[in-house]
Design brief:
Aspartate Aminotransferase, domain 2; alpha+beta; 3-stranded mixed sheet; about 45% helix; binds pyridoxal-5'-phosphate; about 15% strand; Aspartate Aminotransferase, domain 1; single chain
């Protein structure tokens, strides 16, 4: 659920009613819950005066458990958790920890990392923090729009998605337009983005590539790392690459691993 996209409380309540009727649990991926709560506060009627903390609590009240990759909204370098409301489910999950990490008392996360996470969660729901965090993303997106760069609208809470099919219309999907754009941005100014197109989509069971409708490049912004000046450099670099887009040629894949090719494949310029 959610998967990084803003949800509405109305939608969640409807989902809760549906899953209750069919006796299905909701396990919430709450990795970006503070950002989602911010959008609910900004956009959903009746939530304007509620705090981020209250909205996060309300979201969680409609679920049976949650997973959290804490290096996102919880503001830490590493770690995460699974939280559930039912004791039996908790015991089952705790037994699985033995298989993956050793007994739950051995580690996984060190005490100091858990302490940092607790502080991170508290700070993540602060109004100033979340406004500045999402504001920085919107600043970058607005600047890119000013340079006429084709981005996906509306701008979300954690990054900007550039439409590589519109940016590089002369490069066919066989030559990986989004991957090409990601490589060009890196060459131009060391800006590291992520391909979300044909490379990420992978192959079908019969070995053919999936050709998704969207070829996007994700500019994901870490929290509390960059200044507004860094955002300027990123937008200017994207504009620089945009200006020379007609000269850009596609890529060919020269190494493709069996799994996770979007992280590990290698390419050469055509
Ligand atoms: C909503 C959401 N859940 C989970 C993950 C992945 O977390 P991890 O990198 O810890 O596997 C991401 C990564 O961007 C995410 O956006």
């Amino acid at each position: 659920m959610a998967g990084g996209q803003p949800i509405s409380m109305k939608n969640l309540k409807e989902l809760r009613a549906f899953t209750k009727k069919h006796k299905i649990r909701i396990i919430h991926d709450m990795t970006r819950v503070a950002e989602n709560a911010y959008f609910i506060q900004q956009k959903e009627k009746g939530y304007e005066k509620k705090s981020i903390k209250e909205i996060v609590k309300e979201i969680n009240s409609y679920t049976d458990g949650a997973t959290m990759s804490a290096k996102k909204d919880a503001l830490v370098n590493i770690g995460g958790f699974l939280a559930v409301n039912e004791w039996d489910v908790f015991e089952e999950a705790r037994n699985m920890v033995v298989v993956y990490e050793g007994l739950h008392t051995y580690g996984g996360l060190a005490g100091r990392d858990m302490e940092a996470m607790a502080i991170g969660i508290t700070e993540s729901v602060s109004a100033d923090h979340i406004r500045a965090r999402v504001g920085q993303v919107i600043y970058l997106g607005t600047k890119m729009m000013d340079y006429n760069i084709p981005i996906v609208k509306p701008i979300g809470g954690h990054g900007i998605f550039v439409d590589a099919k519109k940016f590089l219309p002369h490069i066919s999907q066989e030559n990986f337009p989004a991957q090409t754009l990601a490589a060009e941005l890196y060459l131009d100014a060391g800006v590291r983005t992520m391909e979300r197109g044909v490379v990420s989509a992978g192959r079908k069971a019969n070995g053919e590539n999936y050709y998704p409708k969207l070829e996007l490049v994700r500019f994901t912004i870490p929290r509390r790392v960059y200044t507004q000046a860094h955002m300027d450099v990123i937008a200017e670099s994207a504009a620089h690459v945009y200006d020379s887009r007609k000269k850009i040629k596609g890529l060919k894949m020269v190494y493709e691993p069996k799994y996770l090719r979007f992280f590990q494949a290698r390419f050469e310029q055509l």
